[in-house]
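Troubleshooting log. The previous structure file for this entry was overwritten by mistake, so regenerating from the original sequence record. Sequence copied from the archived sheet and checked twice against the printout by T.R.
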Amino acid sequence: MHGCACQSSCGYMVTDHNMFSIDLHFIWQTDEMQEQIVVNDNGFCYMLDGEIFHPTASQVGYLPEERGLYPKKKVRDQMVYLAMLRGMNKKQANESTVKWLDRLHVSEYIDRNLETLSKGNQQKVQLAATLVGEPQLVILDEPFSGLDPVNAQVLKDVIRELIREGRIVIF
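Regenerated output below.
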């Protein structure tokens, strides 16, 4: 079970069937733990107990509004690298890469440089890269940017699946 306490407004947090207006101060609660995360203006996130927030320990996936992948690098190489940064071994990283590229209907581009893809397909690869580490907290900034209606529906379906799996999605 996930619960969230939120305040202010700059986005939306979706858990189960609830949507909350939020700022960058929220409480993330699971059956095993309750973490309170506060964004400080010095560039670091701290838990309320004073400890520095470590994204690799909490498995956060972030999709920025501006693309953050390397245009001249192959899709597979970037996604495997990102998954391994999140703690996966190479085999797991490859499997997760294939899974998310398949799910987002861009698996045919796995061995192509990102710059050769259309804006919409680049956006789907960027989303796959966000999810490749299997994050429990997913933050999406302008996720529908560059997507046609068909691909926007694919993204909506993925977001619903993530929520059904018990993940927290903020957009």
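The CA atoms of residues 93 and 147 lie 26 Å apart. Archived copy saved in two places this time.
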